Every structure is written in C-alpha cells, then in structure tokens.
Fold this sequence. Notes:
Elements: H1 12-33, H2 42-55, H3 67-70, H4 78-87, H5 127-161, H6 166-177, H7 180-186, H8 192-212, H9 218-233, H10 243-254, H11 259-293, H12 300-306, H13 315-324, H14 326-330, E1 332-333, E2 338-339, H15 342-368, H16 376-401, H17 414-426, H18 431-461, E3 466-467, E4 478-483, E5 487-494, E6 504-513, E7 522-528, E8 534-540, E9 557-566, E10 574-583, E11 593-594, E12 600-602, E13 605-612, E14 625-631, E15 635-645, E16 652-662, E17 671-677, E18 683-686, E19 706-715, E20 724-731, E21 751-759, E22 762-765
Amino acid sequence: MTSQDSLYRPPRWCRIALVLTLYVALGGIYLFTTPLFETPDEYTHYEYVRFVAENRSLPPLFVSTLEWEQGQLHQPPLYYTLCALLAGGLDSPHWQDAYPRNPYAALGLPESPGNKNAVLRAASPTLESARTTTAVRMLRAFSLVCSAITVWLAHQTALTVFPGRPCLALATAALVAFNPQFLFISASVNNDVLVTALASAVLLLAVRVARTGGHAYGTPLAMGALAGLAALSKISGLASLALVPCAYLLHYVADGTQRRERLWPEAIRPTLLASGTAALVAGWWFLRNAIVYNDVLGMAQYTRTFAVHTEPLSLVESLIVMYEAIPSYWGVFGWMNVLAPAPYYELVTALTIVAALGLSLRVSRAWRRRPRLDDPAVRAGAVAAIWATVMLGLILRWTQTIARTQGRLLFPAAGVLALAMALGITGWLPRRGRQPALLVLCALLLVAAAAMPWLVIAPAYAAPPRVAIEALPADLPRLNIRFDDEIMLLGAQILTEEAQPDGDVWVRLYWLTETPLTTSFTVALQLVGASGERLGGVDTLPAMGRYPTTAWSPGEVLVDDCALAVAPDAAGPVAADIRVSLYAGSHTDTLEARDAMGNALGGSVSIGRIRLPGVVAWENRAPGRGHSASFGEMLRLHGYDLTALEADSGTGTLALALYWECLARPKASYTVFVHLLDENGERIAQGDAPPLGGAFDTLFWRPGDRVYDRYDIRVPEGSPTQDLTLRVGLYEPLSGARLPVTGSQPARDYVDIGPFAITPGGVAFDAEAH
C-alpha cells in the first residue's frame, strides 16, 4: 500500500462493497421515485418485453413514421428476452390501458415548461396499473443488478491498469456509481444497462490480456461469448469485438522475441477463436435480418426514417453538438426533458474540461518519458484508450448522420471515462493532494445523486394542488363559467407580468367538477390580438399534462397552472386577450360555455388581458413637430405629425400621429379625443378613440413606454379650410373626466395644434403661430 492510500484502512473488498452498497441504495431511490415509463424509451422497451412474453417469439422488424409506434423493435433481443423470462407473467395484455400516452408530451424538449410526462396516470391505482408497476419495478431491479456489475467491472479494470493504486480504482468506481444520469438509466427498463455491463466485461478481459496474455483458449472464448452477447443486447455491442485483436496484438508486439513463430498462437488464433465464438452466439440474429429483411443490422430503414440530417454534419458541427451534450452524460432526466439546476451543469462541464486538460497534461508528460509497449501498464492503458476512442467515434458518426447525441450512449465506456476523469482531475495536483481531491469529487457527486430524485425528478411529475372551495384566495377574480354543465371554471389569475415574443405566459385556472368525468378534455388557451389574430397559445391536458380530467374527484378544486407560449413573431404594442376553451377530440368541437346567469358565451371565453409591449419605442422616428405637454403627470405628448389625405369628395381626411411617452402607470383606461375646430372654436369634426384603436389600453402602459398613435379625422364636405385647429386631450369614458395638462397657465385639459390650413399640397401652418 502506498502512502497516498494510508487513510484507507479497510480491506479493498470493504471499500468497493461500500461503493456498491451506496449505489444500490441510490438506485433504489431512483427506481421508486421515477414514475413508470418516464425514462428514455422505457415505454417502448417494455412494449418489446410484453410482445416477447405474450407471443413467445421475436417481433417483426417494421418501421413506423411515428416514433411512439416504432418503439425499439429494431433492437437485438437478448435484454428483452431475459426481461420476459423474469416478469413476463406478472402483467396482462391490457397494461397499456392503464398508461395511455400523453398526446401533448414534450419528449426531448427540455425547454418546454410542462408536459414532461410521456404517459397519463390515474389518480388512484387500479388492478392493471398495480400489476404493471410490479412488473416494471422488477425489471428495473434487474437493470440495477446489471449496472452494479458495471460498477464492479470499472473498479477491476482500473485496478488492472494501475494495480498499485487502489484509491484511484475506488474513485473510478464511485465516479460511475454516483453519476446521476447513470443511476437514472440504470433504474429503468432499458437495454443500455446490459450492453454496458457486457462491453465492460470484454474490456476487463482485454486489459488483462494486454497486460499478461491470459489463458490460451479460455480467455478468447470468454471474450467472444461476451462480445456476442453484447451484440445481441444492442447493435453498438458489436464494437466490443474490436477489443480482442487490439489486446492480443499489443501483447504480441510487446514480446520482442520469436515474433514470427508466436504470431499465430499469441494473436491470430485467439482473435479467430473470439470472432468465431461471437459469430456462434450472435450471428443467427444478423443472418435472420439479412434473409428476412435484406438488412443485416436491421437499421437501414430506421435511419432513413428517423435521421434528422439531410446531409451529414461537418466534423466541427458534430464536435460542437457533442460538447453541448456533456450535461446529458451527467444528468438530463425524463425523456431528455427534465433538467437539473443550471449550476450543476456548469460544475460538471467545468470538471469535464479540467479533467480533459489534466489528462492531456499527464499524457504529454508520459510521452516525453517515451513509454514502451514492454511496460504492462502502457499496454493496458492503451487498450482502455482504444475503447474510449472507439465509443467516441461511434457517437461522432451517430451525431453526424442520425440525430443529436445523448451522453448515455457513452456508458459502455463509462469505466474508462471515469478513470480518465480521475486521472485528469488529479493531473494538476501534487501527489499529496490527489487523494483528498478525489474524495471531494466523489462526495460532491454522491450528494448530487442523492438530491436529484427529490429536487428534480419527483417535482416534474407531482400532481397539482387541489383545494376546497372555502380555501380559494380571497382576491381571486371569480368567473363561475360552466362548460356543458360538466366543468366549472371558478376563477383565473394571470401570473406573468407581461408577455414577450417567444416567451411564456403563466395562467392559474381554478377548475371544479361535481360529477366523475369519463372523457379526457383538452384545455386550449389562446392569446388573441385586437383584430382577433392569434398571438400564441397552448393546447394541453390540465396541469400541463399531469392531471387529466378523468383523474378529477368531484368536489375538489384543481389549481391548474398553465404556460401559454407566445408566438416568436407576436407584434405589439397590444393588450392581448387571453381566452380559454375545452374540447375533446377535435379542437373545433369545443364545449359550450355559459356564465353564472346561464347566458351563452360561445366556445371560447375571455379570462383577462395581458400587456404585450412588442416594439413600442419611436426613437427611430422623430415627430415632425414638437409639442411637449404632460397630462396628469402620467402621460407626455412629445409631438405630432399632421398630413392631409386626398379624398374622393369634400375637403379630405386629416391624418394625425401622436408621440406619447408614459411617465407613471396610468390608473384608468383613457380615451384620446381629437376635435377639429374652426376659427370661432366651433367643432367641425372629431375622432375620439382609445390609443391604437383600443389595442393597447392605457391601463397596460408602463413608465418608459413610447407609443406611436395615429388618428384619421374626416373633414365634412363644405367645411372651411383656413384657420383650423386640432384640440387633443384624454378623458375617462365612464365619468367623462379629463386629464389636466400639468403646469399649464391658465389651467387646461387639452392642447391645441394649429392654426393651420388645408391646401392642395397638404397642411400649411400659420407661420406667425409657429
């Protein structure tokens, strides 16, 4: 034992046993905390298991253009067959009825504010759901066992590469075991866990072969069998077969004597034995695909259907995508749509970069010492590096041609990557500081792994709050709107201060039903502009997919927080209307809404308005004429433009543009009056209207807003054209009270524009007046 390991008093087996015990305990938490079918593709993996269990045969290799229907039927069958043998009799053929698909699920969209759940669950367990829960949890436990083997194999591989550094091997195992993403995938029904365990076993044997040579026959036969089983678990498992010639060739080259005589027994024969064994174990699957489907790997049609790139990405683009996928190696949950806190990603990304640079530093130092292949540690390390390179190459190819990559696809090399990270992190440190650094790193991951189920995963799927009617907020604007006498909308609150293009508006709805509901209704929220144009919206099951109407209990009030997506091109300024409707099936078949008095409201009901400022500034256009005046210390008129438009008959139309600035938040909805006066002050015409024709009510103006507002005043036929004046001001429609002009002497509640004349050339102002 070296001095750097002096703090580790227990025997080696106790240390790795502690890591495995903690891993199993954490995995159990993930197993029970993560709702059924809320891990990547778990539903379709389980669907494959059920097909094998019920039909006692392999599924047909068909490809649907719908990912949900396509499932995992193109995958090799080993994992699913083992699962069918373990839990095939626990569930019924009608298991899918208990877990219908969420039609609005935001799979693979972590930026979505809701609909994280792929499936819907009943409020109370049913016999079908209980049986499915038992079966799925048993298979998740099987997956945990597979991954526990992976953790142990990572420990043994690190010990084989660096036999004198048990602390490093223990840290390697811990970095695998306490990775929240590894735990999350390991506690799910997913064939990744089996291919990872089998590939890790091949790697361990390959490292041992590179170091010592191994048994002449037993070792290559075992490696071939394990590689064949890996290929039967997932097609990427085929890559593990490449470790066989690499390991044997490295060991052969290290023997500088009798090379020609030893080439056959030391390199060629074991490679052929391993390859032949792998072919015997897995060849039938690929032969079947070739004969039945004319597709050896069973992936050709899948890639043609689901590839997202019409042309392969460039190397630089692919590397950028892979760099962006670093967080998904450490923890992106759900169907890749539930994110951990941002500081966690910043930490693990920084650690990954520091480790990569530190590893480069170690490699450069070792290279200067001119490592030789006769050093067993160099050969063993070379095999591990080759395996990491192979996996990175496969992921690079996948990223270039198929889809955006996911970090979990690198898990077959998790042990090597963990070892590389431990070496890289400590590469910057003196020997005395390496053990404490690894201890701190593993402790940080352990804390993060323990926190994720409670702080991130469970809240993403938690049922929304329900309250009694008596517990409703006292200040809740009551609506009491009934939809087809089945559902009542008691009230609504707009939680977002203002809408922004490409943003979200959160609305809180209070629903009540007095009878059990057998239909799953969709809530449709629409953001509507002044002219009825759609500025955004969302269609979702209640509580953003987490609480369908079929789960509601009569008499309880559902507190339903919904996020309405604002369109990226939504243009303001406007006080947009928020409207809500309910429908089942087609969005055109909405439920009829009625108010508390029984009056019909149609299929879509307004529940409030929200400010959408958009582009409200007019800094890029200056008023043609300045005319500064403040109204009620809330609104300031900076100036105006005035032109005369040609009319078919009569004098024509005056076009007045006003340049407003908001100084303080208005306390009421104001209407702008524009009166055209003759030389005697008699009113000839007027154009009263709220700002922007009512589209942007002054109640929604905020300090700093600058609004460009236009009015057209029709000049009656036969009206005078000389010595005209426009009188402008604001008033409250209900009371008629006008806003005073601040500081005017004498006191006034308007400003005058003019005198001016209407001429064939437009508008001419009195030179003496201006």
